[in-house]
Amino acid sequence: MSGVRAQTPSLTSYNVVWDTPSRNASESMPCGGGDVGLNVWVEQGELLLYVARSGTFDHNNTLLKLGRVRVRLSPNPFESGTRFRQELRLQEGHVRITGSKGTHTAQIDVWVDVFRPVVHVDISSNRAVQTQATYESWRYADRPVKGKANHANSYKFAPQGEIVTRKDEVQAQENEILFYHANGSGPSVFDVTVRQQQLDSVKNQLYNPLKNLTFGGVLSGPGMKTAGTVEGKYQDTDFQGHQLVSLRPQRQQSLTIHLHTAQHESFHEWEKGLTALQNESAQTARSARKATLDWWKAFWERSFISIGAANTTEWKVGRNYQLFRYMLGCNASGHWPTKFNGGLFTYDPALTDSSMKFTPDFRNWGGGTHTAQNQRLVYWPMLKSGDWALMKPQFAFYQRTLANAELRTRVYWKHAGASFTEQLENFGLPNPAEYTWKRPAGYDPGMEYNAWLEYEWDTVLEFCLMMLETERYAGDAIQAYVPFIESCLTFFNEHYQYLAKKRGSKTFDGAGKLILYPGSAAETYKMTYNATSTIAALKTVVTRLLELPDSYLNPEKRQHWQLMLTRIPGISFRSFEGHPTLAPAQLWERINNIETPQLYPVFPWRTHGIGRANLDTAINTYRYDPDALRFRSHVGWKQDNIFAARLGLRDEAARLTLLKLQDSGRRFPAFWGPGYDWTPDHNWGGSGMIGLQEMLLQADGRKLYLFPAWPQNWDVHFKLHAPYQTTVEGVLKNGKLEQLKVWPEERRKDVVLLLPE
Fold it and tell me: What pLDDT is attached to residue 418?
């Protein structure tokens, strides 16, 4: 075994290459950067782009696309019968398309500036061509939203009255096309939700991200002029297009799309921001491409997993891991987190479900709605991949909504702490459809009247732990997150005492412990008494909070949290075939879903697992619990692959990972889904990433377990991150560790090799 650093594996073999054009948008490639995502494809000789950006929420909280752009060259080297190549070049973070017809050859590079929201389409040809660019909008008029189409907004299955997607404004201005969508100051789903949930008395104190939100941009190109409008239909949706054409044929042509999103009371203020972006972009034109290339270079050097020989099944696992990580990297600096139900890369819904003949704005499970059980799986893998900066938009989401979550607690229950529900709007209140309008008289207005979501408050604790972990992984100062974490813990501490006092004369049980009733073990075991997943969550987060350096907590606060730790009850057990197992709770009333929260002590909470005395009990749960067996799957948000990896079950981890990270069945290998959600399914990809990482590297305290669930016949070269600002790089071939590098070197003593036999 050598301590010499291995050469970073080449990404070239992972580039996705197509030698024929696409049939439709479902056969598109993802491209992006910063917080902008594009679907890129060539259809019938034309380049098409769907343009998306995080945070473009309309007044119904639909995450609207910013339009479609169509580019056509004349003469056309991309039309039928030409030689064609489309390549996603991972190292550079862009898509390159080349076409040849006879001696005529042209190349188009599509890329996004990582540091500012600007899309670039760079065209070069060995003969002069005329370029025609069309900005296409299906929102050229108000469009009623009917039936299941409302699943894309916050009304979902319970629309209130007529729901309309309002029209965009599109203006042709000599040599550019301006487009934007303005929510204005009028009523939105925010106002409807506040009224529904009886919070009008504090409405002026609530954070509202929808009011006066305007988003859009401008399409332009040097040497181009506007050329009228066109009408058409793509898939199931009619559109109007505004065209630009080049003044004269040229060998070189560039197109740019500058995008701007902001909350302003006037269009003039928004337009000033767009103009400022255009001016800055012009000043940085020479350096922007290099800065973007440097960013992607650093991104790929930060971490990687490369498996086996090219085109083997295990090689595809490594390739698809990298492809999905690339998709996450396209929203590295968004103001808003990556959406679990498609991210920035959704497309016409009928191409996923033929019954859903809706506009390209559609995605199932809402646009501004945050489903925490799903979102967490998108963000957990960023710790080991070293992509800590990518986690900040998700943390910022919670911080922005903290005041609203605390306010609703005070209004409803008159105690402290942040009440975050499982299905949460981007303004921090429960999704109105899930809260429901048809509620019994006198029902607690702070509660969702919902068989799946009632009393499910603990998922936010996973994001608390992620915040805490960035202190160990990245060495980040997390003082800004501590009040948030404390508020989430305070809610559990105070609310369950509040509920106990409502029921009887005692606040705690006979052992002086909190009574976590009613509760919920995920969405599956309902009306629980002392849910195992909640107990493991509280114990882990409080313990981790107390492990912070003294600078984070004064003695009084430290004593307060130490007292709460002593009041958290113990988890419950049951047995099957004589084998002791983890129970989902001490008691429960019914089973509603197909999650396995009795294994949440394994992941995410790691109170049970490798290096722990209770490993056998957790393995028994995986192997013998009939619900765990009945619910087992690799689809979508299922995390059995993670459980198997954390338990050191090599064969099971490999089997499920091969299923989880196999090719999607769509033209782009990492466009999984819809699973239980939508396509591309980001919590499918995220759970696959987590499981693969855990097969290679697990951390428990200062211990670093290498290859705890890795199969003997998979060669691998990996670089991953671990707590205490540690990086581990290793090469395993033929079951033997050929190279190992640990930074810093003193952490090597903490490595425990668990090589496959």
Answer: 98
Q: Which long-range contacts (CB under 8 A, 24 or more apart) does 447-453 make?
A: 448/421, 448/423, 451/526, 451/592, 452/523, 452/526, 452/592, 452/593, 453/421, 453/422, 453/423, 453/520, 453/523
Question: What one-character DSSP code corresponds to residue 150?
Answer: G
Alpha carbon distance 637, 633 (integer Å): 9
Q: What are phi and psi of 456, to 5 degrees?
A: -95, 95
Q: What is the pLDDT of residues 334-371, one digit of tens each?
A: 999 999 999 999 999 999 999 999 999 999 999 999 99
Please, what is the angle between helix 460-473 and helix 392-413, to 10°? Answer: 140
Q: What mean pLDDT is reported for the chain? A: 97
Q: What's the CA gap between 33 and 29, in Å, rounded?
A: 14
* CA pair distance 684, 468, nearest whole angstrom: 24
Whole-number Å distance between alpha carbons of 564 and 558: 10
Helices marked H in 23-121: none
**Residue ranges in the chain modelled with pLDDT below 50:** 2-3
637 within 8 A of 600, measured Cβ to Cβ: no
CA–CA separation, 170 vs 140, rounded Å?
8
Angstrom distances, CA of residue 270 to CA of 173, 207, 408 = 17, 20, 32
Counting DSSP H helices and E strands in the chain, the numbers are 17, 32
For position 6, what pLDDT does the model report?
Answer: 62
3-state DSSP assignment of residue 605 = coil
Cα 184 from Cα 47, distance rounded (Å): 34
**3-class secondary structure, 348:** coil
